[in-house]
Amino acid sequence: LGRPGYINLDRSKIFGNDERTVESMQKAAEQVIDSLFENAEHPWLDCARSYGLSEKFVGEYLRTRKIAPDKVFVSSKWGYTYVANWKVSLETPDAKHEVKDHSTENFLKQVQESNELMGEYIDLYQIHSATFDSGILDDTRAHEALAECRKERGWKLGLSVSGVEQDEILRAARKIHAQNDDDGKPLFDSVQCTFNLLEQRPAEALREAASAGMDIIIKEGLANGRVLRNPTVLDYAQKLGCEADQLALGFILAQDFQPRVLSGAVTTEQLVSNLKAAEVAEKLRKDPTLLQEIGEGCKMESKDYWSERSALAWN
């Protein structure tokens, strides 16, 4: 909701063909956040510098309502800059909605921007889509800047991962210690990873990370909407007497690496439905055979999953 366009399916059906102004998107965001505080015991809001105006929307919501920082958990990310100028889609296929830069200089710039917009609420600050190619895993200067941020601001540190190599990136990241961190603890407290009914390759790496004490956060639990169209998912949901989104998110919640799962809801109706996934997860935990059967019946080859994702259009 922090930007007018994204690759999730059917956004046009949800928002219609009307112009998605900053004001209308902020109002939609506030309605979903209202519902979150009404329905969730521990509200969590996840933002990023590249999610358009997400930090602005969240910061203004929390500040104007004078919500105490200990009444909400807020995470954000640095590493991409939003450059789409509030457009749903761009004129040319090679035009970018966001530009990646994992340099120390960009971190120091973006951490200040995040701090100005909602700094007192931030609990977790993450590298956005860390990869081997971006250089962040080998940049000791950036590691020291991150460790200094944790020490000065009290924010936990994390990284998000994407792509076929998510598991290997996570394993490499777990080995990183900043040279200026006196307590010798690993640099990263958490990982935000794509794992869902279709993409299950990172499961073992997530178990390893959880066993080592990392907090596991799962993104894209609905595979950008693709699970909601998957015949196998729909069939199992019908058998269990639940909605497809509840099965998809419940399947993740039931995993033994005990993840937190981001909703991604853009309407109050979606959020209320998503929250019922906890009930489905409880059923699946009690029936591990069914949990395994559903997972095996739905999963794709990782390379095919990410190939399909890369073809999704902004809408």
Give a verbal description of the structure:
- It is a single chain.
- The chain starts with 10 loop residues before the first helix and ends in a 5-residue tail after the last helix.
- The chain contains 13 helices and 9 strands.
- A 7-stranded parallel sheet has the order 1-2-5-6-7-8-9. Strands 3-4 form a two-stranded antiparallel ribbon.
- The model has no long low-confidence stretch (mean pLDDT 96).
- Helix content is 43%, strand content 12%.
- It is an alpha/beta fold and 315 residues long.
Order of helices and strands: HHEHEEEHEHEHEHEHHEHHHH
Binned, the helix content reads: 40-55%
The overall average pLDDT, rounded, is 96
The tally of beta strands, per DSSP, is 9
Give a quick account of the main beta sheet: strands, pairing sense, barrel closure: 7 strands, parallel
Helix/strand-derived category reads: alpha/beta
Rounded radius of gyration (Å)? 19 Å
Strand content: 5-15%
Terminal Cα separation, in Å? 13 Å
Shape: globular
Strand order of the largest sheet: 1-2-5-6-7-8-9
The low-pLDDT segments are none
Count of helix runs: 13
Tell me the layout of helices and strands.
Layout: H1 11-15, H2 22-39, E1 44-46, H3 54-64, E2 73-78, E3 80-82, E4 98-100, H4 104-118, E5 122-127, H5 140-153, E6 156-161, H6 166-173, E7 190-194, H7 203-211, E8 215-219, H8 231-240, H9 244-253, E9 260-261, H10 268-275, H11 277-285, H12 288-298, H13 302-310
Parallel strand pairs: 1-2, 2-5, 5-6, 6-7, 7-8, 8-9
Antiparallel strand pairs: 3-4
Helix pairs in contact: 2-10, 6-7, 8-9, 9-11
What is this structure, in a nutshell?
The protein is α/β, with parallel strands linked by helices and 315 residues long. It has helices spanning 11-15, 22-39, 54-64, 104-118, 140-153, 166-173, 203-211, 231-240, 244-253, 268-275, 277-285, 288-298, 302-310; strands at 44-46, 73-78, 80-82, 98-100, 122-127, 156-161, 190-194, 215-219, 260-261.
